[in-house]
Design a protein that fits this description.
alpha+beta, Cell Division Protein Zipa, Chain: A, seven-stranded antiparallel sheet
Length: 354
């Protein structure tokens, strides 16, 4: 070989060695960054959260409510949660957004600060929330105009459509990995097998307590004049809202039960109706026993005053003893929810039964 060939060969070898060295250095830097993230001395507001007992729920068949199937009613909007999570605040604030007992939480450690606009929308058929660690070292729900040094991305394990599937988890991981790769970073995940088992157990528990109670007041002769229905509803403290349904709410504005036309027509578009239905979405209501008492009292008063019959969905007459039996079942359901650390009407319940 000529001297020129030897020089060219040497330069090529040096270039290959430089590229290999740079890649090795990048890999070492990312691993060091990820390790440092896991070794932070400040409290981890998500992963250090005490676990409730919901993970030990037993699987079972989906409970068909005695009076009305819960799946026929759309869930209320999710309760608002704090947008900012300061590490000095209560752990409960972070759990309101992402809870390892309810979510499959991935961590993304980018190579550099990432702008909000660069975070992709992750769509897998289940609720996804993204928290970012700002340059002020505060966890928050990501928002426009902000940049973040780390991310926690949570996929909800269970809702009223059932548990997350393996295919959905795989899709979620693929999309999160693609985001991490695009930002020159790394992503870490819990074991999928463990979380799939948790999801099945959690869904089994939800099936045991998922119930929507409906009490129907049916005219035995002529349809009820809507003016009389409205007068009784308003006297009981219910408010007709934009959906054409009367809503009973707590002093703090939380939903208790509804009064609607039995055939799902907006009440404000009717002059009369042959029947109305009062509905209580059991797991989504705090203090459900008292809400049921109030609902049952109104249903009985309407049946008496309007000259109608109080019946279940199969048009079987409901007597005071039947209402007492339903209330007893309610007490048992709410006790189960409390024992699992998912009280009725709480943040976790509103997420799971949506």
């Amino acid at each position: 070989m000529s001297e020129f060939h030897w020089i060219t060969l040497g330069l090529g070898a040096a270039l290959v060695g430089a590229v290999w060295g740079f890649n090795a250095w990048q890999e070492w830097r990312f691993k060091k960054r990820a390790a440092a993230a896991f070794a932070r001395s400040h409290p981890d507001v998500l992963l250090d959260t005490p676990k409730n007992m919901v993970r030990q729920g037993e699987t079972g068949m989906r409970l068909e409510p005695t009076l009305e199937p819960a799946a026929t009613v759309l869930g209320e909007p999710l309760a608002p949660v704090p947008e900012m999570v300061d590490l000095a605040d209560s752990v409960a604030l972070a759990v309101a957004i992402l809870d390892p007992a309810l979510d499959y939480v991935a961590e993304v450690h980018p190579g550099d600060l990432v702008d909000y606009a660069a975070v992709p929308s992750i769509e897998v058929g289940k609720r996804v929330r993204v928290l970012g660690l700002s340059d002020a070292d505060e966890w928050e729900v990501i928002r426009p105009g902000h940049r973040y040094q780390e991310f926690r991305i949570g996929l909800q394990l269970v809702d009223r459509q059932g548990p997350v599937s393996e295919a959905q988890l795989v899709m979620f991981c693929e999309q999160v990995n693609a985001f991490a790769d695009a930002q020159g970073g790394v992503a870490t995940f819990p074991r999928r097998e463990d979380k799939l088992r948790v999801a099945q157990q959690l869904d089994g528990f939800c099936a045991e307590v998922d119930m929507l109670i409906g009490l129907n007041v049916v005219s035995s002769r002529n349809p009820f004049a809507l003016s009389r229905v409205v007068a009784m509803a308003e006297a009981a403290g219910l408010v007709l809202e934009t959906d054409g349904v009367f809503h009973a709410r707590s002093d703090s504005g939380k939903p208790l039960f509804t009064l609607a036309d039995r055939h799902h027509r907006p009440l404000d578009a009717l002059d009369d109706t042959p029947s109305v239905t009062l509905l209580l979405d059991v797991p989504r209501v705090a203090g459900g026993e008292q809400a049921f008492d109030r609902m049952a009292d109104l249903a009985q008063q309407m049946a008496l005053t309007l000259g109608g019959d109080l019946v279940d969905d199969d048009n079987r007459s409901l007597k005071p003893a039947d209402l007492a039996a339903i209330r007893k079942q309610l007490v048992s359901i709410y006790a189960k929810m409390d024992d699992r650390g998912i009280p009725g009407g709480g943040v976790a319940a509103l997420r799971l039964f949506a």
